[in-house]
Amino acid sequence: MKQFRMLIITLIAMVAIMYIGGEPVMDDKWLFVFLSNQIIGCLLFGVAYGLYRYWDRCHLLPEKDYEDEYVRRY
Question: I need a labelling partner for 54 at 20 to 30 A (CA). Which of 11, 17, 25, 61 fits?
Answer without folding.
Answer: 17
